[in-house]
Design a protein that fits this description.
Strand content: under 5%
Largest sheet: none
Number of domains: 1
Order of helices and strands: HHH
Helix content: 55-70%
Radius of gyration: 18 Å
Structural class: mainly alpha
Number of strands: 0
Number of helices: 3
Length: 119
């Protein structure tokens, strides 16, 4: 299977890729990972997600939102300031809302495909 539903579920829940129980992130509105899983003691400091989730979001949201904005402009002829307001707010909301789960998904993928790097 090309996409593993369990990995997507684990990523969306922001849980540990090993036990699927412990929280991946520190409490609060932050992107900081915990040092270890509270359930299984998996060392999260060995992950290597870097800027991958942010780059994926740039491509995914750009691919989705730019054509929609162009279609809306062609049909309704909104002024530029309204486009900037609507698409700016929508882009920020989608980015903030999906960055943590996407990073958790990338970490789960790394754990599945390169488990030796975590030991």
């Amino acid at each position: 299977m090309l996409v593993d539903p369990q990995l997507i579920k684990t990523g969306w829940a922001c849980k540990c890729p090993k036990c699927q129980k412990g929280n991946l992130y520190k409490p609060g509105f932050t992107m900081d990972l915990r040092d270890r899983c509270a359930e299984c003691e998996l060392d999260f400091t060995k992950n290597d997600s870097a800027d991958g989730p942010a780059v994926f979001l740039i491509f995914i949201l750009g691919f989705l939102l730019v054509p929609i904005a162009l279609i809306v402009d062609a049909h309704y002829g909104w002024p530029v300031w309204l486009h900037a307001l609507i698409w700016g707010v929508l882009t920020i909301a989608l980015t903030v809302g999906s960055l943590r789960p996407l990073k958790a998904y990338i970490i789960a993928l790394q754990y599945k495909h390169r488990p030796g790097d975590w030991e």
